[in-house]
Design goal:
This protein is of the alpha/beta class. The protein has 10 helices and 12 strands. The chain binds threonylcarbamoyladenylate and magnesium ion.
């Protein structure tokens, strides 16, 4: 089933494929013209580096200059899975991939199709397979929406997690999270037995300088996205889509989606809801804020993505 896509990648073309987080836009990590096509297709600024996707732990050594014992512990524990690790890079890694930085981001995704694809045609760079600024794709249809009906995409239905991987910089002291994801900082601290810095994105200019992707507007639909006010009445307003996780609305309506504390489901569906909002002509997406006492390992990632979409 994958033959055609493997062939395309080997010929230096780009192909969208499923991972457990979101669909990625893959290209041969060692082929500069293929990598260039990724930037062009997405309309991605060239100063925003890409993640290299591998399918074994030893493959990291093709790209990383130093692999510490702690890095190995993390890889053994969390890979394959939604954790991207940043290492000091080897000189031969393409500057195009790392946007000229001295570091390289690497992850081993979990989806069986992505593993087979990488085994046959990888390592692959793969940003999320959306046009720059649009919500990441969690279904093959989303990729076609952005790149056209004929674009080669390996369709494996909905992705399991729906939000992009956690990005952890192992070249910083202390280690630092640039993008929260399904693997939480608490889990990471537990495994390596020391504190990491979990300050995310906009709070820190330093993060923006170190991880360029965090600087750009992201994940946003055309509809306005905003947080629900505490005293706000939830209306059967056909122009507003409400995403609630804890409050119970007095009435029901197609425009009121209730997650009843299922944050994982909200994570799986968030980007799909953003895209649906645009397709169905909603003017606003209004999302219930998270309370401090709510505990779910996905909440920091959800807050981060929603806050980025709030204009
Ligand atoms: O779940 C994911 O990570 C998905 C799937 C397809 O694997 N990929 C993804 O890639 O989200 P992308 O390109 O949309 O986001 C990569 C993020 C960007 O914010 C980028 O700036 C950051 O990782 N990044 C990549 N290399 C970096 C580096 N060397 N130093 C700091 N940040 C880096
Ligand atoms: Mg992206």
């Amino acid at each position: 089933m994958l033959d055609r896509y493997i062939q395309l990648l080997r010929e230096g073309e780009i192909v969208a494929f499923p991972t457990e987080t979101v669909y990625g836009l893959g290209a041969d990590a060692w082929n500069p013209s293929a990598v260039q096509k990724v930037f062009k297709k997405k309309g991605r600024p060239s100063d925003n580096p890409l993640i290299v996707h591998v399918d074994t732990i030893p493959a990291v050594e093709q790209f990383a200059r130093e692999v510490s014992d702690e890095a190995r512990t993390l890889m053994h524990h969390f890979w394959p899975g939604p954790l991207t690790l940043i290492f000091k890079k080897k000189a031969e890694v393409l500057d195009l991939v790392t946007a000229g930085l001295d570091t390289v981001a690497i992850r081993w995704p979990k989806h069986p199709l992505s593993q087979e694809l990488i085994a046959q045609a990888g390592p692959l760079v793969a940003p999320s397979a959306n046009s720059s600024g649009r919500p990441s794709p969690t279904r093959a249809e989303h990729v076609r929406e952005d790149f056209g009906e004929d674009f080669p995409v390996i369709d494996a239905g909905k992705t399991a997690i729906g939000l992009e991987s956690t990005v952890l910089d192992l070249s910083a002291t202390p280690y630092r999270i640039y993008r929260p994801g399904a693997i939480s900082w608490q889990e990471i601290e537990k495994i390596i037995g020391k504190k990491i810095s979990a300050d995310d994105d906009k709070k820190s200019d330093n993060t923006a300088a170190k991880s360029p992707g965090t600087r750009y507007t992201h994940y946003a639909p055309d509809a306005i996205v905003r947080w629900l006010d505490v005293n706000e009445t939830i209306a059967m307003d056909s122009r507003t889509l409400y995403l609630l996780h804890s409050r119970r609305p007095k009435q029901e309506g197609e425009n009121i989606i209730v997650y009843e504390g299922d944050f994982q489901k909200l994570g799986r569906e968030l980007y799909d809801r953003f895209r649906q909002a645009d397709q169905q002509g909603y003017k606003a997406v209004v999302i219930e804020p998270f309370a401090d006492e709510q505990e779910d390992s996905l909440i920091p990632a959800l807050k981060n993505r929603i806050q980025k979409a709030v204009k």
